[in-house]
Request: fold
Amino acid sequence: MVDFQPILEAALTRAGGEAALTQRLPTPKTAAALRAVGDDRMLSQMSLRIFRAGLKHSMVDGKWPAFEEVFHGFEPRRVRAMNDEDLESLLTDARIIRHWGKIRAVRHNAAALCELAESHGGMGAYLADWPDDDTVGLWADLAKRFTQLGGNSGPYFLRMVGKDTFLLTTFVVRALAHWGAYEGKAKGKRELAKIQDLFNGWVSATGRPRGQLSMILALSVE
Reply:
């Protein structure tokens, strides 16, 4: 396993010291805190991530109060019950982003979340119970259950709601190669398993959550 200390030292230098680096590092929620997050907030954050994809985040965020209104506060059962006419009417509402595929995804994901909540006692419980040493397995499960949560959207959603996850941004993958930890495209089950093992080893060696490790990696080269 590649020693993480030189990576940390490079990140500290680029960030401008310990205090500056600490301010940029994500802090995951505890299992108890995750369990306390309501399913409406989970659906809201999931939908926010989906609408942010490919768009300026500040623009999407500015419209989000209107999204909360038209999607009934993202209460999953109410959103699941919206019919096609309800969704089509949103295409005339200039307060929101009128992207048909993403609008439909909200209803699909509400139904999937209801199903998950029935079997796990809520999405917060589902996330809290998922083992931290199988991050890539969680990504795959999210992509299977929900629409438009593939690629980096699933990991970004997890970061938004406070579930510990590393990210495989361009900078992180570049850093892995720079430090001789991993060379590849970071795609496919076998390659992702290799990266998972890397992060699991660094967690054991440093005591840091995976989200912080990936941020430090990105900062070590950029």
In short: The chain has two domains: 5-28+166-221, 32-148. The CA atoms of residues 41 and 48 lie 10 Å apart. The mean pLDDT is 97. The chain has 14 helices and no strands.
